[in-house]
Amino acid sequence: MLVFLAFALLVGCTAFSSSAIGKSADSPSNPSQHSQLSLSHPSGQLLGQLLGRSLKLLHWSIGSYADKSKADWILDGLGLITQGIVIPALQVTVIYRLWSWIVPSWENAIHLGWGWQFSLSFVCVDYLYYWNHRGLHHPWLWNAHKVHHSVTQMDVLGTSRNTLWSSFLIVYLWVHALMIMVLAHPGGYVFGVSLTAVLDLWRHSSFSLRPDQFRYPWLYALIAPWLILPHDHAWHHSNSVESKNFGGNFKLWDKIHGTYLQKDTYPSSIGVSLNLTTIQKLFMPIAKPLTQKK
Q: Which of 21, 158, 164, 170 could serve as a FRET partner for 80 with CA atoms 20 to 30 Å apart?
């Protein structure tokens, strides 16, 4: 729940500072202008701008999610329950107990400072995830991952779209439980896990920080060389190029291993088409796809 609240705050801040939302040309009306007509004081103008942009954001969100089919809502909803509730519960109960049974002497055995724990989670595990993600695009494992690439628009609900059992192939499930078990006071590690989850939601959204969308170019220049931004990850979901940008938090891993694709725009289309029923997508996605990521 804290992850989703943090993401809501992140989205709100991004939307408020985004000049693209503030100057959207395809919005049917301009509520912020109407709000400012009766608010001449600077603080009133700021409130009017915030209200207007919030209304535009609400209008955009409703329009975006209204395009989802019933099958997509089922996939994304069940995926959200699985990855947001079931998997974390398994990590701190079953998987935790499994590790403590396999290596009982490791429990609470490592004492690390808060910063080292955070780095272990946010950086080191992110590198493991890079290779994990690349492995899921290998022909041997692609069937377990391709449902995630069936999303046709970047939105936070699509973050959790997956075959229900594919989370057992993600390194997070096993490594997080192990680290929480072996660390004496894993607060810094858990914070890194939470921040990674928030960024994962964000990079599946359409709230990017491209220079033409953001008012503060110095901030973009600071984070763009390092963090995977939403438009970077959108190219990973593109159906027009070979898969690139496998990284989770950092671009560094893609740059080191030659899988980074530099683009300053969103792709024209994303998603692969699958000749699968909803039940197959949830449990057994083994039918041949109509299009396949390379």
A: 21
